Amino acid sequence: EKQGFKHFMLKEIYEQPSVVRTCLESYVNSEWTAASSTNPINLGLPDDLYTDLEQIHIVACGTSWHASLVGKHLLEQLAQVPSQVHYASEFRYALPPLTPNTLLIGVTQSGETADTLSAIHSEKDRRASLSAAYQPRLLGITNRLQSTLTRLVDSVIDTHAGIEIGVAATKTFIAQLMAFYCLSLDLAYRRQTVSPTRLEELLKQLWQLPTQLEALLETQEKRIEELAHEFVETQDFIFLGRGINFPIALEGALKLKEISYIHAEGYPAGEMKHGPIALLDEKVPVVAIAMPGSVYEKVLSNAQEAKARDARLIGVMPPSDPHAAEVFNDLLPVPEVDELLSPLLTVIPLQFLAYHIAARRGLDVDQPRNLAKSVTVE
Ligand code: F6R
Question: Which residues form the SIS domain (predicted)?
Answer without folding.
Answer: 45-193, 227-368
